[in-house]
Recover the amino acids of this structure.
């Protein structure tokens, strides 16, 4: 809750007439300079894909963003060379954490044949890297969540465990019926976009319903190699896509040292 100040500020010491003191516990209050606690400022991250340098750069950026909470839409593992480290960090820092198709693949819940050759090789490698405790954590994750007046899904709120891609207006229109909030955040395609129920693209108004793809932290595919994440203010309904440069060469080097396919390194430098 975005009450300016913190819990410590909600306690004040009051002098009594007889020289004594007592602590008065204050309820969150409203004034012209204080946000009444109705606003949540959300940082939404997705598709980290084992890219620890990208995740660390994004988390550092979020620290300066004023975000109250961080929600993660899944695919924390897969493709990248630091899957276990990324799961550990997401567990530490995120509130809502969803299961993505690569997380599901690592657990063999989604058949490996459903992945392309690069994805399959990376999942088989990652299965040996992710600690048992972190695998158990991934197993228990939900496919969707509704919190802070928003819906969250990895791929689509419609049949979320079938990993539908929202790549067309028609696919988006079908998905609006699957959630009741004004806004649903998704990832999965690694391409940031805002789709309105009215058919608008990347034109968000203060009213209306939207599906917002926050892009990918660890493997952007919109020809911009910088890590991507979203910031959303639940009161003003302002959304901002944030891009964060990170040490791409470090991740590329680690992919090569892990023996993962060269294409997985090369694509990071191009944002494809
Ligand atoms: Fe992904």
């Amino acid at each position: 809750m975005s009450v300016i100040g913190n819990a410590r500020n909600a306690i004040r010491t009051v002098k009594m007439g007889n020289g004594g003191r007592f602590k008065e516990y204050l309820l969150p209050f409203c004034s012209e300079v204080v946000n009444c606690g109705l606003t949540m400022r959300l940082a939404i991250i997705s598709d980290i894909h084992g890219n620890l340098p990208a995740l660390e750069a994004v988390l550092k950026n979020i620290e300066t963003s004023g975000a109250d909470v961080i929600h993660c839409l899944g695919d924390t593992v897969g493709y990248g060379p630091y899957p276990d480290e990324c799961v550990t960090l997401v567990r530490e820092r995120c509130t809502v954490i969803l299961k993505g198709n690569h997380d599901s693949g690592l657990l063999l819940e989604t058949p490996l044949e459903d992945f392309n050759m690069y994805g399959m090789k990376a999942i088989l490698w990652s299965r040996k890297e992710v600690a048992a405790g972190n695998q158990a954590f991934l197993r228990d994750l939900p496919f969707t969540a509704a919190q802070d007046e928003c819906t969250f899904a990895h791929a689509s709120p419609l049949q979320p465990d079938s990993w539908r891609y929202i790549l067309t207006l028609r696919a988006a229109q079908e998905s609006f019926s699957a959630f009741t909030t004004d806004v649903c955040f998704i990832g999965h395609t690694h391409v940031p976009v805002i789709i309105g129920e009215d058919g608008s693209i990347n034109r968000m108004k203060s009213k209306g319903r939207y599906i917002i793809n926050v892009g990918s932290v660890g493997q952007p595919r919109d020809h911009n190699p910088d890590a991507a994440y979203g910031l959303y203010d639940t009161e003003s309904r302002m959304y901002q896509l944030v891009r964060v440069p990170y040490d791409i060469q470090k991740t590329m080097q680690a992919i090569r040292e892990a023996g993962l396919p060269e294409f997985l390194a090369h694509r990071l430098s191009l944002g494809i």
